[in-house]
Amino acid sequence: MNITSEGSTLQVAGLAELNAANASAFRDQVRAAIQPQHVNVLLDFSQTRFVDSSGLGALISIHKSLCGRGGVVRILNPTPPVQQILELTRMHRIFEVTRS
Amino acid sequence: MAPSISSSPGRVLTLSFPCDLAAVREAARQFRTFLNDQGVSAEELDAWELIVSEAGNNAVEYTRPESVGLPIEATVWVTHLNVELQVRDHTPGFDLPEDTPLPDFEAEGGRGLFLMRSLSDQLRYLRSPGDNCLIVRKGRSGISPARESAGDSLQMAIMESTLHTLTEELAASYESLSAIFRFTAELNRGGAGTEFVDRWLRELMMVASADWFVLRLSNDTTTQLRVEGISRADLRFEPLDLREGQRLESSVELQAVMGRQDMWFDAASPTAAGDPLTQFGVALAGFAHPIYVNEELVGVLAIGRYASHQSFTAGQVNIIHTFADFLGIQIRNARIQEGYLRSRLVTRELEIAASIQRSLLPERLPEPPGFRLAGYSESANKVGGDFFDVIQIENQQHRGLLLVIADVMGKGVPAAMFAAIFRSHLHALISLSGLPGKLMSWLNRALHPDLARVDMFVTAQIVFLDWMDNEIRIASAGHCPLLIAAKELGIMEVTADGMPLGIDLQMEFEEKCLPMPETLRLAMLTDGLIEARSPEGELMGIDRVKSWMADSIRRNDTAQTSCESLVELARTFQADAPAADDLTLLVITRQPEVELS
User: Cys-Cys crosslink for B466: which of B195, B400, B403, B563, Cβ 3.0 to 4.6 Å?
Assistant: First the structure.
């Protein structure tokens, strides 16, 4: 997993799976990387083929830590199974799901 | 540690794995490979991989402490019609609820059971003292004809699925872009009017497969949201009040605007009973999207479907956001343009009013033998309410010079209008010019109805220099004193009793009479001069004006020079401070050597 900073956005990419086994570590790493200048978190999920309910929990936790800053969690290019989970749990209503 | 495998050829796979989350993931991958080999479709493979993971994770997370060392066993049966999973756990067990609603958005857990139930047809949980068993069953939607190697098939399935999603989203993006291009061309012709808004939203309704919409726009003062576009003309929506006191819970549109975020409604979280959107129906699915441009509220778009279980997909949400935000920018631009045109119109109106006001002042001042006159008038705004006039009277009853100065309360166009009305009445009553008191009383009676109606008043001063009787006659309607300088008198302030015009209809104005001195210097002023303030806030006052007059006499200034030096005094005194009031003055001098005929 690569975490990079670009202006007010923290970018996360290269994650193969977000599941119960790695969700806590993922959440802690991203939250630790959020600096005062970061308003938004961009998650490039083009390589992420599996997300489960624990993974969703980690995303919500990151979303909550951004709420006070008026920022959003943006999910870029999710794979079809991940997009299906986001829509099934209506997470696409709180995260911005975008394609580039 | 790798799970241990026991499988009957082709149909059943049992995995026994340690009580560990990573082992659950590995088991889920193995089940996926097994199901793929059995010809289960790509979509179902995704679902089963998730179901096994969620079931296994629960078995691990809630295992009794004393049972952590025991393996977890999972079995999958595949028949022609169904796939069934059984997971045996060593947890204290739980009561499976009949219904599993989606938890609140803010909740970080609790979605595992929801996902399993959503993705399967049947979910059961059997409890026993030793271990419990979760059973999940799902009918098969179709059997893949091809049996490629597991890896190839998985890759293929993902590619196909990705291609399908991308094609759908590309088509939607194309629709959005093409609509934006078409409508932008139209905007150049007509602007973001009501008809444009309606057609734009109907286009969106089609692209996003929505059934209905309602667009509200904020008013100029951002106190109300009024309906600008609606998919059904038969419905009537009252404006929503944005001020305090409005009950937020009764409108998802208000909640979206106040919280600056999309507010969703569907079967799980329906709109409140009193919500205006319930006019579309009670079982709705959709959301309200607040439209802000540069932090400024433009409006709110509510869009949805009649069936409460048909929520919008992520792609459709993106399209709705794009359409709504684009429309917001167009509306905002149109408002800015309108404001610019309005301000240009106001400027033009003021220019016209200023030109009317200038035309009220005498073009050229009379120059009767022995007398010299100079006048000056400047408005604090583009248009003001000060006015002066000088009329030489030569008729059987009177011969002399009528001097009038007036100050209409307030500034701007209304004040200028009353100055014009004042002038008209003055010229109509010219036969009374020799009797300033009487003239003032008539002016009051003529102006009173109009002034009283708008709560305005006028202060005025009328002086008649009568050279038949060699007298100066003065009347005042609440106006500041005039200054007279004569050898015999020195410099003195003169005024006459009287309230401003427009206050008392029955007012009879006093007339003061002075003998006409041989040498005379007379200054008629308005409040703007005496009440002018320095940047430090100091008042000009009448004494400074008296000193100016003394200096003017000493220098033997002409009327014109005298007038200019008084204007200069006011400017110097106010320095850079902007003038708060209009400034108008009239200076008259009489040369003693000239014989009056």
Answer: B400
Question: Do both B250 and B116 map to the same domain?
Answer: no
Q: Does residue B135 sit in the same domain as residue B264?
A: no
Nearest to A52 among B53, B164, B311 (CB): B53
Residues B403-428 pLDDT 10s = 999 998 876 677 888 888 899 999 99
Work out the end-to-end distance of chain B between its first and last CA atoms, rounded to an integer number of angstroms: 131
Please determine, for the modelled complex, whether the ipTM score is greater than 0.85: yes
- B69 within some domain: yes
Specify the CATH number for A2-69+80-98; select among 3.30.230.10, 1.25.40.340, 1.10.3720.10, 3.30.750.24: 3.30.750.24
Neighbours of A33 (CB within 10 A): 15
pLDDT, one tens digit per residue, over B29-69 is: 999 999 999 889 888 999 999 999 999 999 999 999 988 99
Q: Choose among A19, A57, A85: nearest Cβ to B109.
A: A57
- CB distance A54–B57 less than 8 Å? yes
CB-based contact B314 A53, cutoff 8 Å:
no
Q: Do A88 and B106 touch (CB under 8 A)?
A: no
* Nearest to B476, CA basis, from B464, B486, B488: B464
Asked whether residue B153 is assigned to any structural domain, the reply reads no
Measured between beta carbons, which residues in chain A are less than 8 angstroms from residue B318?
97-99
Nearest to B22 among A21, A80, A93 (CB): A21
Q: How far apart are CA A56 and CA A53, in angstroms?
A: 5
Spans of all domains in chain A: 2-69+80-98
